[in-house]
What does this fold into?
Amino acid sequence: MDLFKKTAFELHNLLKEKSVSAEEICKSVFSKINEVEDKVKSYVTLTEDLALKKAKEVDEKIKNDEEISPLSGIPIAIKDNMCTKGILTTCSSKILSNYIPIYSSTVVERLFEQDVVMVGKTNMDEFAMGSSTENSSFGPTRNPVDLGRVPGGSSGGSAAAVAADEAIIALGSDTGGSIRQPAALCGVVGMKPTYGLVSRYGLVAFASSLDQIGPITKDVTDCAILLNHIVGYDSKDSTSIKTEAPDYTKALVNNVKGLRIGVPKELMAEGIQPEVKSAVENALKVLSEAGACVEETTLPHSDYALSAYYIIAPAEASSNLARFDGVRYGYRTKESDDIIEMYKKTRSEGFGKEVKRRIMLGTYALSAGYYEAYYGQAQKIRTLIIDDFNKAFEKFDVLIFPTSPTVAFKIGERVSDPLQMYLSDVCTIPVNLAGLPGISIPCGKADNLPIGLQIIGKSLNEETILKVAYTFEQNFSLKA
Ligand code: GLN
It folds into this structure.
């Protein structure tokens, strides 16, 4: 039995029936890793011994007829920007290449309480800056669907791991699209929850007003299950929302009757690859046949989202990354005459090109004299974008558009042109600026390369987007 192919939901049932053991599941996933990891390179660190130990503990519990959680014994991959106590956490950066945290992030702790089996830490764009996982200082991850192409980014390692069956489920982080875009490009499900729903404590900060952790899974059911176990208030994160989270699996119903879907015309216009556009149109047809009302709408300021994001995100990053100075964390330059030279050399040697570009941009945008012209202006745009969404949601329950304007591009194709790379996120960035929940699910292929459908909901309305995603998944696979 190829256990690595199964979903968390299926494996949980097999574990409960005692027809497989957690150890067998774990070994199956590692056999797949041994087979493909050389080519795909999803991981920075593998934690096989720890995983097997945990799996055996779960088997003991099952043997003793103890209650197990839906995630007990399920192999999970964690993006390498989430702190894991005693386990290397690099953010795919040279500057953290030797950093072993003394604590775990809240999400990781919550998952460990559920007895997940952590397979390893996944590769990413350095400090989550990028859309292709080519900005990793440990080399790129490749798209398992086509090894000559990128898996998307920055959570490319997590998306590739799930798509290649090197993990059953995974966690990513999304600041401007980094969960949804790689999920789309690898043909898996990825969700960015509402800003503040999942604790960011122990997530190495990129842009704190945008960052959010979320699930990457093989299907919508697993997405709801994983979400159930990472949400919830955390006093250690001052932006954490105090809310009673529902059981998201209750939203897994095949019913969109009377549901109002808005399709923003700006995000279905030029720049969207024709095959992507027609796959999304086809998905809308599937949903309207299932009873939803589909109508065109508008997000008039979405054209400015990218520009605003590339001021706000680098501004916050330049401040967040000031802590990596060779004193407190990770790498320090070998030789220096004084402390200023030590800072300079450490940061010059430790950070990659894209990270330096963002620090320069952000510092410039925040400098006296330019602050109002750039940062102040970008914040105003952000408010206009939030207003656009609020207006659209007066009339619609969800908004639907592509996740990525194109399918996976070739490795190397956009590295030398940062603006081209930034354009990969035109459809995802507005959602982060507004702090809204969004999911990307597979909705077809162009030349065998996966296409992602993006479904956006009102704040804290994860249930509605899960319902729409689930309905689409059921009706689409029936047709396929
Ligand atoms: N690609 C975008 C960027 O480079 C988004 C990254 C992310 O969501 N972490 O900033």
Remarks:
- Residues 318 and 360 are 7 Å apart (CA to CA).
- The mean pLDDT is 97.
- The first helix runs from residue 8 to 16.
- The two ends are 25 Å apart (CA to CA).
